[in-house]
Description:
The complex is a heterodimer of chains A (about 190) and B (about 600).
Chain A: H1 2-6, H2 8-15, H3 17-21, H4 44-48, H5 72-143, H6 166-179
Chain B: H1 2-6, H2 27-66, H3 68-79, E1 80-83, E2 91-93, E3 99-111, H4 120-131, H5 135-142, E4 149-155, H6 157-165, E5 171-180, H7 188-191, H8 203-207, H9 209-212, E6 219-223, E7 229-230, E8 245-248, H10 252-269, E9 273-280, E10 286-292, H11 311-314, H12 324-334, E11 343-345, E12 348-351, E13 354-357, H13 361-364, E14 368-370, H14 372-377, H15 381-389, H16 393-402, H17 424-429, H18 431-438, H19 447-458, E15 462-463, E16 469-473, E17 479-481, E18 489-490, H20 494-510, E19 523-532, E20 538-551, E21 558-565, H21 574-593
Amino acid sequence: xxxxxxxxxxxxxxxxxxxxxxxxxxxxxxxxxxxxxxxxxxxxxxxxxxxxxxxxxxxxxxxxxxxxxxxxxxxxxxxxxxxxxxxxxxxxxxxxxxxxxxxxxxxxxxxxxxxxxxxxxxxxxxxxxxxxxxxxxxxxxxxxxxxxxxxxxxxxxxxxxxxxxxxxxxxxxxxxxxxxxxxxxxxx
Amino acid sequence: xxxxxxxxxxxxxxxxxxxxxxxxxxxxxxxxxxxxxxxxxxxxxxxxxxxxxxxxxxxxxxxxxxxxxxxxxxxxxxxxxxxxxxxxxxxxxxxxxxxxxxxxxxxxxxxxxxxxxxxxxxxxxxxxxxxxxxxxxxxxxxxxxxxxxxxxxxxxxxxxxxxxxxxxxxxxxxxxxxxxxxxxxxxxxxxxxxxxxxxxxxxxxxxxxxxxxxxxxxxxxxxxxxxxxxxxxxxxxxxxxxxxxxxxxxxxxxxxxxxxxxxxxxxxxxxxxxxxxxxxxxxxxxxxxxxxxxxxxxxxxxxxxxxxxxxxxxxxxxxxxxxxxxxxxxxxxxxxxxxxxxxxxxxxxxxxxxxxxxxxxxxxxxxxxxxxxxxxxxxxxxxxxxxxxxxxxxxxxxxxxxxxxxxxxxxxxxxxxxxxxxxxxxxxxxxxxxxxxxxxxxxxxxxxxxxxxxxxxxxxxxxxxxxxxxxxxxxxxxxxxxxxxxxxxxxxxxxxxxxxxxxxxxxxxxxxxxxxxxxxxxxxxxxxxxxxxxxxxxxxxxxxxxxxxxxxxxxxxxxxxxxxxxxxxxxxxxxxxxxxxxxxxxxxxxxxxxxxxxx
Lengths: 188, 599
């Protein structure tokens, strides 16, 4: 709209009789010859102030909306309309994205929830199966006369004593060990 | 863009530039007609728009102000669903996480013959291979009623899927949970069972019913147009998965060995019943609790009701000589004897008209003066009478009451029995009462209570509460909640309990009980008690044999009590019948619980 408002500006220039006579000043327009100016019947000023008083016959004049400079408030409104339409477009796009993602997330949630339920059920069944197998093994072990555990078939290992001096010793040995790979191969 | 700006300046062809068209009318001339039409059109459009807007406004008012409540209610009805999700009953696991009881998803199949679209014969033909029932029985069933016939319950999911794949009208599959005890009879009298209505009827299933059965909450959810549940708004707790498990102190590996040993002994001696208790003396947690005969909780309906209890907890018996170390501790604690006191074994004595004699009096006669170790080693009844007679009778009775003989030990199983001891008046009335109590007769308690008393001797004098529940844990075994701390009562001094334990260990070493395990010192005591007759007096040949042992003596960990009720055969003594059982249990416990040797 702003662009179209601007398009009226050269028209206003044309309304000035003085400028009509010096068309070369506005080289951007392919201006008609002075005698053809009378053809610009739509020009409102042309209706009121004849440019060529020696015109042979009055040309039919069509009304043309008067062009005044656009008031500031209208320009503001036009700008507002323009910007608001961009904002509206953005908002519509955003709403569509949000809505579709919401629907998508809900769908995804439902699927994930059902999957979770099914996995939980499977976990439950697996633990049951494990317990049944465990019991079965116990019963079979009894049937095949396997000996129950006893001290005679158990080995108790003494825990190695924790020596406080062992820590600095290993700390000292570690740098020497870090040099070792340079001299000996690691693959064995 | 520039060109387009210019275009309006070009003459319009329709504006009548053609001179042949006659004198054109001025705009003012033709405007009125157009305006008239334009105005009416404009008014019409305006009116339509205004009417439309007005209508919309009115409708908005109707929806938002007048019918708001009704519509909100209607929407709620359509979108909100109230769900009562059926949560499975919580699992019971042992101390190592082995599942002892758990719910599983099963299906019940109902038939409604009135809704069959195909002949019943055809339905029966299709169902026969899946239900493991013959065609005839199905057809008979179909002819009984027109609707609501239960064809099967406890169908596994696979079978249920196959049945629903048949897509037959008139069949209904109902999903439900069924309790399964994967360890079968291994731990049945402790865990108990649930009936068809999922109500615990025995054991921990009964006492922990409220905790095992999760609260079924009504959840409010929103349902989308396609029927899917929408996560917003979601009731709190919808996502939470109840994976709480009741963890017991029992160890299934030990329980299996113990049950197997007891089963063998019961068969060998044709005993009426038997029990073995393995308890941690430090905190009273039970590692094994076995009663025989027992039942399979998966098929509880095939067993006698009397088997559903753990008789080690519910039934009273006269402990016999296994109670002697407790009396020694009482006397030591009262200060009437010291570790080196000698007691007079007269072999036989008469109190009022009752004759009291040693079990081996006929063979050995009177032993004379005996120290504590020998009194325990020979299980001298008369020596114990001498010991108890050094105590004031009232003082002795008070000490027994202080041990909680007549109180329940406080285990989480149903129907626990409280011991019986004559009241002070009757106890004082006849000196024979204190005399018989000295060797464990004339009063009764549960095997569990006796194990608790021996645990007190082993752990430095603390009366720990026997218990089966370790904690509530999640599915990964992480503890969520522990039971409330159990009160500890100190009944003996550490010195007293140490002396008694050492004397017991010495007597065990010296006696015939084969308790010599390399690296482990065992403090044991056998008991052979005559059973009391309901008509008064004691049966001559009906006995209860038992053996109790605590080990290792230097750092006691476990107390083991084995009791066999009414064994039959020759040489029926606690040492010969139950002693070997306890020895085998100790062997297994050392290996399974990893109890290191002391020497």
